[in-house]
Amino acid sequence: MKFLRDTWLVFQRQMQLLLRNPVWVIVGITQPLFYLFLFAPLMSKALGQGRPLSQGETYQLFVPGMLVMVALFSAFSGFGIIAELRAGVIERNRVTPVSRVALLLGRSLRDVVQLMFQAVLVTLLSYPFGLRIAVGDAVLAFLLVGLMALLLSSLGYALGLALKSEDAMAPLLNTLIQPIMLLSGILLPIAMGPAWLQRLADFNPFSWAVSGVRALFAGHPGDDSVWQALAILTPLTVIALIVSSRTFAKSVR
Amino acid sequence: MIIETSGLRKSFRSRAGRDVKTVEAVRGVDLSVAEGEIFGFLGPNGAGKTTTLRMLATLLEPDGGSAVIAGADLRKNPGEVRRRIGYVAQGGSTWDDSTGREELVLHARMYGISKAEAQRRAADALNTFELAEYADRKCKTYSGGQRRRVDIALGIIHQPKVVFLDEPTTGLDPQSRAHMWGEVRKLQQMGMTVFLTTHYLDEADALCDRLAIMDHGQIVAEGTPADLKQEVLGDVVSVQLQRDVPRAADLFGDTDFVRKLETTEQSLRLYVEDGASVIPHVLRTLDAEKIAIDGIELHRPSLDDVFLAKTGRSLRES
Ligand SMILES: Nc1ncnc2c1ncn2[C@@H]1O[C@H](COP(=O)(O)OP(=O)(O)OP(=O)(O)O)[C@@H](O)[C@H]1O
Ligand SMILES: [Mg+2]
């Protein structure tokens, strides 16, 4: 099928370029790793709400937040697309009959693969600290995080193509991502906050995602938050893909 | 006709501070290009050349008008137009960290060509454009001319019927330019119709079978270089002056041997039948009026004269 072939073509090319310069994959997880090793140990008392948590329990709560944090960084994909736009690569792609959705999806899937690698690495590095998770739960958790990466990277591409300038993109992304991150309960569960903050967080899809991933890391795949997260993220991702591939179809440098 | 357009229009809104201005980039372009010719678009910066090409290459939706390219309707069937044309952008299209060969193979495959065939065509194109030596080096290590040749090779890797080249030689040194003219003629020999833009007069003159002169979004003249030059009858005597251009113009304005007179800031151009016989008279007259001259030239009409005659400005100055 042409669409699948096109997506594979774009994906392959992007992977090739990523592997040629893989240092960014590691740079992308330095911040979460700092949090994990320098900040998480502080949290065992705070998170336990009175009863100090074991190291393993602390990481069970903290690692999901870090995974979502790395997934949120997928929105920075928009910077790469501005460089491609400037180099004329996007225009060169657009002049061929290649599928416009493939132009987006191939790139976003590269971001998902990168995120998966980072997520697995962060999880494995937490093992020596006592983190334990069943393989099935982990797969489901990574699926959720991957969906988030797909959503955010495609939005990042749309934003980059619309703004066409890193100078406009950087402040906008920062102001958008900061509140989303804080309202996701990445560092501390939102449930610990006052009621108004919890109501506010209900409007943040990533807050639902963090709850879902936490439930999986806690070994409760049947928890409501898991299917809720999936039900919220899936349609959003589909919409983002449609909107972003439209911007690919129209982008002019 | 392999390209026929009628009434092609495009305007942009641009914002300067609080003002929103509408720029009419292309204001009704009608043209026809015959199969197998090298057709040139000559015009100053901002004339609307790139905008027209982008519309024809399906990259930009026209505000109005229509076009049929290689038998496919631009509006109704852009997908088919894409399959039949190649487009080489003004600003290039290669990625720093890829090699020339990788770019060519990928680009060919985006047209649905199989991997093996794409590799074969890439190798062919690398030979044709004398790039084989650099094929497996990253594009960022290429010289401007080498990179431009990769761009052209990308534009034709799928053997299109028509190829659009937006300023193929801008920024190249004279030697690379001459080289590129050879490449463009090669494309014609391969059976392609070449539609290129340029703001070099010599390039338009030497390379193009036919050309259209564009200014302010409109085509002001169209024809073979020879025909266009013939439209501007006779010789041109151009006199460079430091000052006193208006006074000098008055001296010759009403004389019967001057068919037409034009002035620019520091020169006076007299269109006359026989330049050689007029020059002594011009010199004597100016000398008598104590108007100092910087130089005097006699020339057969060039495309610049055509441009000047059609727009009242010189292409060199604009
Ligand atoms: N995307 C755009 N947004 C706003 N204005 C534009 C856009 N593209 C072109 N223009 C304007 O349209 C006009 C025509 O531009 P165009 O690029 O077609 O000129 P050109 O003939 O190719 O010039 P050059 O020789 O400098 O390449 C210019 O005034 C330009 O500023
Ligand atoms: Mg241009």
Describe the structure.
The complex is a heterodimer of chains A (253) and B (318). Chain A has 13 helices and no strands. Helices cover 77% and strands 0% of the residues of chain A. Chain A has one domain. Chain B has two domains: 167 residues, 3-Layer(aba) Sandwich (Rossmann fold), CATH 3.40.50.300; 67 residues, YebC, transcriptional regulation domain (Alpha-Beta Plaits). In chain B, the strands form three sheets. A six-stranded mixed β-sheet of chain B has the order 6-7-8-3-9-10, sandwiched between helices. Chain B starts with a strand and ends in a 7-residue tail after the last helix. The model of chain B has no long low-confidence stretch (mean pLDDT 88). Classes of the chains: A mainly alpha (253), B alpha/beta (318). Chains A and B meet through α1 and α7 of A and α2, β6 and α3 of B. Bound molecules: adenosine-5'-triphosphate (ATP) and magnesium ion. Magnesium ion (MG) binds next to α1 of chain B.
Give the SSE map.
The complex is a heterodimer of chains A (253) and B (318).
Chain A: H1 2-20, H2 23-27, H3 30-39, H4 43-48, H5 55-72, H6 77-87, H7 89-94, H8 100-126, H9 135-163, H10 166-182, H11 195-202, H12 205-217, H13 224-250
Chain B: E1 3-16, E2 19-33, E3 38-42, H1 49-56, E4 64-69, E5 72-73, H2 78-84, E6 85-88, H3 100-110, H4 115-128, H5 144-156, E7 162-166, H6 174-189, E8 193-198, H7 201-207, E9 210-215, E10 218-223, H8 225-231, E11 235-241, H9 245-253, E12 258-264, E13 267-272, H10 275-288, E14 293-299, H11 303-311
Helix pairs in contact in B: 3-4, 3-5
The rough form of chain B would be described as elongated
Question: Per CATH, which architecture of the largest domain in chain B?
Answer: 3-Layer(aba) Sandwich
Mean pLDDT across residues of chain B: 88
* Share of residues in helices of chain A: over 70%
Given the structure, what is the number of helices of chain B? 11
Distance between the termini of chain A: 30 Å
Amount of beta strand of chain B: 25-35%
- The computed structural class of chain B is alpha/beta
Distance between the termini of chain B: 32 Å
